[in-house]
Amino acid sequence: MPHLVLISLILVFFRLGEMTDAFLTQYRLPGATAPGDIIIEGLFPIHVAVNDNTNRFSPPQRSNCTRFYTRGLSQALAMIHAVEMANRSPLLSTLDIALGYRIHDTCSDVTTALWAVQYFTQSPSECVSATNSSQSVQPTMAVIGTSSSEISIAIARELNLLLIPQISYASTAIILSDKIRFPAFMRTVPNDMYQTNAMVKLLKDKKWNWVGIITTDGDYGRSAMESFVAQATMEGICVAFKQILPDLLTDQKLNTSISQTVNTIINNPKVKVVVSFAKSAQMMSIFQGLLGEALHDRVWVASDNWSSAKDILKDERISDIGNILGFTFKSGNVSFFHQYLNDLQFGSEAEKNNSFLKEFLLQPDIGNTRKAIQELIKNTNSDMVFSIQMAVSAIAEAVAELCSHRNCKSPTSLQPWELLAQLRNVTFEMEGLKLKFDDNGDINLGYDVSLWQKNGSDVHTYKIAEYYPSNNSFSLSFTSSTKQIVFENVVSKCSNSCQPGEFKKTAEGQHTCCYECISCPANSYSNRTDAVQCFTCDTHSEWSNAGSSKCNPKTFEYFEWNSGFAIVLLTLAAVGALFLVLVSALFIWHRDSPVVKAAGGPLCQLILFSLLGSFSSVVFFVGEPSDMTCKVRQVIFGLSFTLCVSCILVKSLKILLAFQMNLDLKELLCKLYKPYVIVFICMTVQVIICTLWLHLCPPKKNNEELPHVILMKCQEGSYVAFWVMLGYIALLALVCFIFAYIGRKLPQMYNEAKFITFGMLICLMAWVIFIPVHVTTTGKYVPAVEMVVILISNFGILSCHFLPKCYIIIFKKEHNTKDAFLKNVYEYARKSAENIRSLSGTESESKTESSIYTISTPSLLMPEEALQVSAQKPDRMTQNHTTTADSAKSQK
Questions:
Q1: Domain 2-190+335-436, CATH homologous superfamily name and number
Q2: What mean pLDDT value characterizes the chain?
Q3: What is the pLDDT of residues 261-294, one digit of tens each?
Q4: Is the pTM of this model over 0.85?
Q5: 359 to each of 31, 45, 56, 69, 362, how far by Cα in Å?
Q6: pLDDT > 70: what percent of the chain?
Q7: Would you say residue 19 has pLDDT above 80?
Q8: Long-range Cβ pairs for the range 590-597 (8 Å, 24+)
Q9: Backbone angles phi, psi at 239, to 5 degrees
Q10: What's the average model confidence in pLDDT over 233-244?
Q11: Are 559 and 784 in contact (CB under 8 A)?
């Protein structure tokens, strides 16, 4: 029984081998051939689809391929031309070596391509020639192709078994750079990682961060999309939509996918840039579906898959669908290839060796040889031609180096793996460039960026930039008008850019490119467009308003000398000081006059001196504060104004003594009346207060950080000491006010108490108002408040105490005599006595005489003199009164 099973398996394998041989025998390959010592296989998409009605269980035939692809034929002819040029070059002709080729049609189908590979990888004894079955098939040394990454991946796995070198001229899938899985694969173009990196670089430079992607559902499309999305995400570019189309053009779902893609593009008006890795036929259908949609502001970024397929635009105008920017491989001089096409002879011999040409002539829109040549030239992609020429040149250089040391006429003298090893290290030259495959088996020359423009029915491409992968940069070569059309007028963003002073706030679940622009809060800033956050200002030295693009340095602020308010106050202080000097000089000049003596004599000079110190203290409230000025200004004012009020207190007490009715009280007050002692005691108390203040907690300079400025001010140190100092002055002023108020009804010529009352009232009111104003005022004008109060107090005292005296001295000299004063006092005394008699009729005449004597004391004398006169006997005073009365009558 086991023997029967074994025999059955052997029969099955034998039958399968026969079927495979039958398939390969019926498979009419290749379509173009040329003999040579070294055979190169070519795989090109002469057709772009396979008939869906094909029986997949029957041997594949080229007749099952549909949709003739003129561009693919042009690529095959580029290989033929490159082989012929290599054979004519001294490199091979001197060795008497010629390259041969066999070109196969992949029909853009993986299965068809695999049957082709199966055909030329069979051993010579198992294969038969397509043209002569009596001759064995010459072994394959290398393969050029294919353009599709998906097909290249499939056939590369087959070619890996025999290590037959495969050089692709357009397959760009990143996976093919993996030399562990694809050791025999090489290519003359960069992989898609560089292309997607170039695309992302372009989008980033132009600030297009809201894009759509169209790709195919294959190895190339999926790989390119993943690479693009990964790099775009790293650069902050968002993908609004992804549309994946079926890879096969004959797929029944293709039309539905095209319609869905068209609707998606229309329904996303903010997506102005669409990156497409689709096939040219698919893009043709999409553009036809977008007719009439006014997409003039769109930018289509075309991959190398369709960037040169200018024939996809037929009835569409460029202005209808927008601008097309194509990424193409580096191209070379194709003039020799165009000459080759013009010289191409269509005849029986050509058609015998190249059946593709015969089929091409049978196409409906060709008809004749001239039209055929024009169509071939029109469908020539210079980048593809250059890539194919590089592949052939690399093989020719490697063959020349190997065959220079051996006889390559023998079919077995050279093995594919030997050629593969030589290709990986070969250096060859094309158009002045020295080229070599890198460690991944790739030749990376970068990309050209072309702009499509249509003139009539013809589409032309203009190179506007070059991309250099070595430093990830572009070299621009477009005109200013092109730049205006393509780059400047296109805005592809989900949200408008946030301006400096704003930051982006993305809602949860949204793309990072869809956001709101929020103004930076106060004391923060953003200084660039589309900032993701605001930076905080150093609030110690900087500030900013809400929505600021920078931090403003805080300026130092204080009560400046050049401030208009300061100038006014200082001018008033200077005027007051000048007036003090003049008054002092006037009083010294008239020091023996009754008015000066009645005003206090030497005490007046002391008051004027103290007021000068008070005016001088105003200067220290202006300008940049320092520790010294902060201390000096308060101490000078406190001591000088205390001296002033103390002297006025002495004057008030003198008046009270001069006109006191109660003799017992008057006698007591006379004993206590020591003018300079009183002044000394008052000053001593203030000196103690200021000394303790300066020693324990003195005023000092302090910088207060306000929202926009740094306020340089004086901190009073101990506010308790500050208010105690002012309160002490206020207490003295209040006592003066009370004493003066008691003696307010004095003789008209001697109404000193009334002026003291007004002066102290002004001071008290000014300082009472100062308290709330000082507490509530902030900023640099706080010192000005105290300056105003000081000036009001000084001018109040100056006006009430000295201006009336100066007026009498200068303009009323007749009143500045002793007789005038005594007469006025006598009249006041007589009226006061009559009032006393009327109020106290039972009192004795002696007591009335005593009252008259008390009131009529010559108070225009100095205090010491007044006290001496007050001690005289009543009879003497009566005599003095009589004399004074007589004198008054004589004056009348």
A1: Response regulator (3.40.50.2300)
A2: 81
A3: 999 999 999 999 999 999 988 999 999 888 878 7
A4: no
A5: 10, 14, 24, 11, 5
A6: 79
A7: no
A8: 590/809, 590/816, 593/809, 593/816, 594/816, 594/817, 594/818, 594/820, 594/821, 594/860, 595/805, 595/808, 595/809, 595/815, 595/816, 596/805, 596/809, 597/860, 597/861, 597/862
A9: -100, 110
A10: 92
A11: yes
Which tokens sit at 352? 């015998």
> Residue for token digits 């081998």?
17
Q: First-to-last CA distance in the chain?
A: 178
Residues in contact with 500: Cβ distance below 8 Å, sequence separation at least 6, in sequence order: 525, 526, 527, 528, 529, 531, 549
pLDDT > 80? residue 606: yes
Which tokens hold the place of 20?
């495979």
Q: Domain coordinates of the chain in residue numbers?
A: 2-190+335-436, 192-334+447-488, 564-816, 820-891
What does R_g of the chain's alpha carbons equal in angstroms? Answer: 57
| Structure tokens that stand for 160 in this block | 């890996």
> Residue 712 pairs with which residues in a beta bridge?
703
Give domain 564-816's CATH architecture. Up-down Bundle (1.20)
pLDDT at residue 194 tops 90: yes
Q: What residues are paired with 435 via a beta bridge?
A: 428
Helix (H, G, I), strand (E, B) or coil at 294: coil
The rounded distance, in Å, linking the Cα atoms of 745 and 754 is: 8
Mean pLDDT on 120-147: 67
- As a whole number of angstroms, the distance between CA 39 and CA 166 comes to 13
Tell me which architecture the domain covering 192-334+447-488 has in CATH: 3-Layer(aba) Sandwich (3.40)
* Of 148-157, 375-384, 801-810, minimum mean pLDDT range: 801-810
Tokens standing for 293? 């949609």
Confidence band, pLDDT 50/70/90 cuts, at residue 173: very high
Torsion of CA 187, 190, 191, 197, to 10 degrees: 180
Q: Are 656 and 738 in contact (CB under 8 A)?
A: no
Tokens of 656: 């009270």
Look at residue 166 and tell me whether its pLDDT is greater than 90.
Answer: yes
d(CA 303, CA 170): 11
DSSP state for residue 142 in the 8-state scheme: E
What integer pLDDT is reported at residue 588 of this predicted model?
A: 85
Three-class secondary structure of residue 62 per DSSP: helix
